[in-house]
Amino acid sequence: MGGGRGAVDPVIIVGAGPVGLTLALALARQEVPSVVLDDGPGKDEPRLARTAVLREDTTALVERLTGAPLTGAGVRWSGWRSMRRRQVMRRAVFDGAGEDASDGGYGGGYGGALDGRRGGAFGDADDAQDGPAEDSPEPRGAEAAGPAPLHLAQHVLTGILRAALAREPLVKVVVESRLDGVEQDASGVTAHTRGPKGTWWRGSYLVGCDGPRSTVRKLQDIRFPGRTAVERYAVAALRTELPWSGEALLHRLPPWRTAGPSAGEVTARPLPEGVWRLDWLLPPGKELVTPELLVGRIRETLTGWTGNATPAYELLDTGVHTVHHRLARRWRADRVFLAGDAAHLLGALGTQGLDEGLRDTDNLAWKLAAAWHQPSGSREALLDSYQEERRAVVSARLRAADQVLPVLRGGRGLRSYVPGSGRGHDALLADGHLGRGPLGGPGAYTGSPLAAPDDEATVPVDTPPGAPVADVTVTAEDGTFVRLRDRLGRGALLVVLVAPGTGVWERRHWMSAGIMPRLAAAVTALPYRAELLVTESYPGAAPHTVLLIRPDGHLVTALAGVHPAALYTATATTLATQEPTPHTT
């Protein structure tokens, strides 16, 4: 294959949204040059109604690549509440949230308006429909929800990525360059752009990160089947003071009458500087969302939540967000790949399409880097595994949403037969928003062609093979203590030894003691560059467990002690190579 140190052809990235820019940074971190073809002016229009929710793993990915913390760019939610009519159905508190944050300023309710009493500010017409199974008392306590999601405006995220790229000599961003042709041959890819800087570009590979209407996908004649307008939302970004601080809310069947068409669901998610993004689920159809209708919806919602007159607010941005579910038939066509919205569309029930796009880049970058740096070696199976792994994960996410949507959006459905199903429905909705379960949790590459074979030395840990590893503290090769995620994405596998007690000694004291010399020799003999790390503990791992971790942070295998042959075989399988196992003991 083309590319590599003996060639000068970079990877061509088409599209300069968050996915394309992240991929360029991920490749540069692994010493692979790239050219980013941006069909825009190189600056994004500020849109507070266009935001993204990043989970712990994707937030860490962006922070690692940009070298900048994202906390100041967005808001990490202190908690999550879901309500049905007047009742709090579920409360969740994220890591680091204090007691005040967990209550969110509700006290007994929204200023007395939503405290569970009959009547009040909204009358009792809707309450007559509530049965005891649907309108039960508030939950006893908040559940622990793990690390907080990060909510930020997409143009802010893109700006951070662009600033990092401006400092990166291995990346060239070419603005006002719209792709209109792609040609492939045995050694690389040639792309043609039109516009003020229209020209031919030569690359080793090309990745289409150019969104739902991907030109790359169309030029490769790749089908993009799926469902149109799965959900539709009216969106408003506004600055106001709500009765809680830092918490996100999902409110189903709010107990006030709405103006215009409504599907009876609204979410509120905080942004920096007192700004909130509000999303109202719209009924199926293509009815026009007029400014008058949206302003009316804002006023009645704010009044309903406060229980008083409409509080002061500043409307900053509006929009209509339509969710489509689509999945490209192929994500690879020889030297051309698809990633992000060019490969898949999702977003119903709180799932986050950008999260999946960023995970695409993390998976693809290390595989492209392996092929680019070793052009003489066969990496076809490794490159094929990108589609096999990522498409399977996104496909499972879409199937889960398709199974749940009829239950949640299909009228009475199961509710006619299952007592208390309101809480069950709420649990399904919460999974997508909270980033857990089949709808929202990070995908595991089970059944991957890169999965390590079973070996008698293999032992179970709390992380199953193919799943993302826990972010434990490790001792690096230079003796510093760092987070495990900080060592990812450097073009190397990670070998982590679980060794209690090593944290109190300098690395030089124990590198020559016990099993360390034998493990270090085994790591040196691996068929791919690997970094040896040590941790005091890992969830579910016994002392002297050896973990093999991919550059994207997914576990390959866990071994009971030092087994050079098993470690070598697992590494070769992860790289999709057929190299013979050395006769080591």
Average pLDDT, rounded to a whole number, is 86
* Total DSSP helices: 13
By DSSP, the count of extended strands is 27
Q: Please outline the major beta sheet.
A: 9 strands, mixed
Question: What is the class of the largest domain in the CATH system?
Answer: Alpha Beta
Could you characterize what this model shows?
- It is a single chain.
- Helix 7 (about 355-375) packs antiparallel against helix 8 (about 380-410).
- The chain is α/β, with parallel strands linked by helices and about 575 residues long.
- The chain has a 9-stranded mixed sheet with strand order 7-6-5-15-16-17-14-18-21, with helices on both faces. A 6-stranded mixed sheet has the order 9-2-1-13-20-19. Strands 25-24-26-27 form a 4-stranded mixed sheet, covered by helices on one side.
- It has helices spanning about 20-30, 55-65, 100-105, 155-165, 215-220, 290-305, 355-375, 380-410, 420-435, 435-440, 505-510, 515-525, 565-575, and strands spanning about 10-15, 35, 50-55, 75, 80-85, 85-95, 145, 150-155, 170-175, 180-185, 190-195, 200-205, 205-210, 225-240, 245-250, 265-270, 275-280, 315-325, 330-335, 335-340, 345, 475, 480-485, 495-500, 530-535, 545-550, 555-560.
- Helices cover about 25% and strands about 25% of the residues.
- The chain folds into 3 domains: about 10-70 and about 150-225 and about 330-440, FAD/NAD(P)-binding domain; about 80-150 and about 225-325, D-Amino Acid Oxidase, Chain A, domain 2 (2-Layer Sandwich); about 475-575, Glutaredoxin, CATH 3.40.30.120.
- It has 13 helices and 27 strands.
